[in-house]
Amino acid sequence: MLAFLDARLVLLSVPKTGTTALETALRPHAQAVLTGHPGLKHIELRAFQRFLAPVLDRAGAPRFETVAVLREPVDRLRSWYRYNARDEVIGRADSTARVTFGQFIEGYLAPDQPAYARIGRQSWFVDPLPGREPVDHLFRYEGMDACLAFLSGRLGRRIAPPRMNVSPEADTSLDPALERRLREALADETALWEGARH
User: CA 97, CA 52: separation in Å to the nearest integer?
Assistant: First the structure.
């Protein structure tokens, strides 16, 4: 999470949406930075509103606007699967190196998810506190140029993030019946992503 005082803007880091690269490019220009530990870097909108917004509000009005990036839901799962198949993750409970993508998706859809499939939902990440504002500026990962143009305009500088956290190649094909089940389960996620700017 990065906060920019003059622009009154907070960039929330939804996992697997290119925000590590954005943070690398923008960190020198931010006045408040939460990175490193995933629990801090990937702080959800609700936690931001409950704990951090009151602190930032001490810097005066108007309130800080929030920005987040969402990824097409099935593509996001493909990215998580490939990312957790890296050699350095083998042996950990969240490693996907020894399961097929189909097994990963079955685990994700199961009521009692195995550790390797316990990755949450983007909709949970951007869900506001009751009665509070949703994310002000929601962008699609697949339309990153729109996000970069917005941030460049608000921050008054050209932003060119490096390519980072590239996942290894892997077979992420799915049985059509399983893909239909998955897409039905992700209907709310897809609707949220479709409503984002691109």
Answer: 37
The answer to whether the predicted template modeling score (pTM) of the entire model surpasses 0.70 is yes
Measured distance CA(145)–CA(168) in Å, rounded: 24
Strand blocks (E) in 106-192: 137-140
Q: Give the SS3 label for residue 98.
A: coil
**Is residue 27 within 8 Å of residue 33, measured between CB atoms?**
yes
**Cβ count within 10 A of residue 104:** 24
Q: Rounded distance, CA 13 to CA 125, Å?
A: 9
The superfamily (CATH) of domain 2-194 is P-loop containing nucleotide triphosphate hydrolases (3.40.50.300)
Nearest to 80 by CA among 167, 141, 12: 167
Alpha-carbon distance of 66 to 85, in angstroms, equals 32
Distance between CA atoms of 191 and 134, rounded to whole angstroms?
Answer: 15
Q: What is the tens place of the pLDDT at every residue in 171-182?
A: 999 999 999 999
For 163-192, what is the mean pLDDT? 92
Strand order, beta sheet including 137-140:
32-33, 2-4, 9-11, 65-70, 137-140
Phi, psi of 178 (to 5 degrees): -70, -40
